[in-house]
């Protein structure tokens, strides 16, 4: 069969599969979803050479990466920046790429790394030498620092509500544990998503990891998947010693953050596993008292949706995180909120991480309404509502977690808890971070 004809047949099949079933990625259909709100479309209002889909991310010590798209392929990949509006005393150049997916060809995707930058400072910047001026604020170098945490974001009316709630109060870094655009093979939805989040992602660093909706794998034609995700959302994997954009780490203000890949190989012989062990072995908890991990498919989950889908990754990697005394593990995938106690190996353990599922950003599939009964004593709070969360590290020992339910006009704090860093718990340090040889 001709390759183009095969592609057309597969595209038709995938369109039917993904847009005529209630939940194409669900482990089962024995749970009920609250009806989602309508999708939103975000068109480009500028010229072909104007930057669009602008977003910034942390890119190693004292540096940021500016990413954007232009329809004009002749626009230079450069960023001019400075500390005063319209006064740019520095310029950096970078790289650009584009990709094809069936009959879709992306615009030119630019990535430019700038710095060194000062902490807690507002910078003004212009992409490609033209178009509007943007600005961002760098994170602080020391505590306190605040993260906005949102999973399974999508681009619906609920997404708009969630982002408005996030933007109503200041924060330093945005964390997203997978499922960004819900493009699901329809590549123009990646463009629409980038334009939707630009007002937020251009002002604060967005750090993301992949979910199942980023895979977009098609046997034979696109066997490796993640083509759009890797091209558009370049994260600092090289800066953290990783060989894949699907998993990496970064440091900010005394916190080491692991962005793990639920859909990359993770068994003991995998590159991700080896990288994780080596990465954690470098962390000095006296200098970096907090360690946080994000991944997509939750290891602990009492919802009927996607139950057990993170189990194989848990079995492979849980011990590594436990011995490294990771403080908190965030996941998405399940379209509801759930907070667990500290756990290791399916038991309450004061030296294990707190596990939190926050897959409630605003996806097009709706909420996972059905939790298993009776509930588990390990699960301390659970609710199927759209919302977002904030993690505020006050100092080396204390952090405040709050989950904000979307209530149309107001974000209501429905769950909150104080956390203590495991680095200060002497009883948890009888063992040390495992070495590569030990695991």
TrEMBL record:
<dbReference type="GO" id="GO:0003993">
    <property type="term" value="F:acid phosphatase activity"/>
</dbReference>
<dbReference type="InterPro" id="IPR025733">
    <property type="entry name" value="PAPs_C"/>
</dbReference>
<dbReference type="Pfam" id="PF14008">
    <property type="entry name" value="Metallophos_C"/>
</dbReference>
<feature type="domain" description="Purple acid phosphatase C-terminal">
    <location>
        <begin position="352"/>
        <end position="415"/>
    </location>
</feature>
<feature type="domain" description="Purple acid phosphatase N-terminal">
    <location>
        <begin position="51"/>
        <end position="138"/>
    </location>
</feature>
<keyword id="KW-0732">Signal</keyword>
<protein>
    <recommendedName>
        <fullName>Purple acid phosphatase</fullName>
        <ecNumber>3.1.3.2</ecNumber>
    </recommendedName>
</protein>
<dbReference type="InterPro" id="IPR041792">
    <property type="entry name" value="MPP_PAP"/>
</dbReference>
<keyword id="KW-0325">Glycoprotein</keyword>
<keyword id="KW-0479">Metal-binding</keyword>
<keyword id="KW-0862">Zinc</keyword>
<dbReference type="InterPro" id="IPR004843">
    <property type="entry name" value="Calcineurin-like_PHP"/>
</dbReference>
<keyword id="KW-0378">Hydrolase</keyword>
<dbReference type="InterPro" id="IPR029052">
    <property type="entry name" value="Metallo-depent_PP-like"/>
</dbReference>
<dbReference type="Pfam" id="PF00149">
    <property type="entry name" value="Metallophos"/>
</dbReference>
<feature type="domain" description="Calcineurin-like phosphoesterase">
    <location>
        <begin position="147"/>
        <end position="337"/>
    </location>
</feature>
<dbReference type="InterPro" id="IPR015914">
    <property type="entry name" value="PAPs_N"/>
</dbReference>
<feature type="signal peptide">
    <location>
        <begin position="1"/>
        <end position="26"/>
    </location>
</feature>
<dbReference type="GO" id="GO:0046872">
    <property type="term" value="F:metal ion binding"/>
</dbReference>
<dbReference type="Pfam" id="PF16656">
    <property type="entry name" value="Pur_ac_phosph_N"/>
</dbReference>
<keyword id="KW-0408">Iron</keyword>
<comment type="similarity">
    <text>Belongs to the metallophosphoesterase superfamily. Purple acid phosphatase family.</text>
</comment>
<dbReference type="InterPro" id="IPR039331">
    <property type="entry name" value="PAPs-like"/>
</dbReference>
<dbReference type="InterPro" id="IPR008963">
    <property type="entry name" value="Purple_acid_Pase-like_N"/>
</dbReference>
